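Give me structure tokens for this 177-residue protein.
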Amino acid sequence: MAGGNNGTRRQRPNILITGTPGTGKSTTASALAEATNFKHICVGDLVKEKNLHDGWDDQFESYIINEDLVCDELEDIMVGGGNIVDYHGCDFFPERWFDAVVVLQTENSVLYDRLTRRGYSGTKLSNNIECEIFQVMLEEANDSYKEEIVVALQSNTLQDIDNNVARLKERIESWRP
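Here you go.
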């Protein structure tokens, strides 16, 4: 399904907030949605609520997301714009959906503490820390979207999150279809 929105342009942008687990995606997306009256879509929650998965992965202690089901579920919602989507992956979403892709990044020591507090350990913890060290999410975003819509933002402190929300709100307010 190439091409845009059936000949109509969105009046409001869609924003993807991505990054390694623990970088502040949900906190940032929720605060930004509140500040802009946009809809916050947490893909992880959507997968659980609507059973958009192919079972449970014991090694990584997470659902095995069915990307096709997720995209089918979101297609009509995304056409209208005004959505902030939050997920730790980004390469399976249609490029046409997003007007900005934000990759949150966190210093390794801060991320380690956040993930440990969440109960991450072993393979799950080490894989996520390595993902951040090697900037896997930023590379994935740059490979999947036009360079000019991808932005990396630091997300180490609550002040960083506040600054990011203010910056993104400003970007939304100045967006023109």
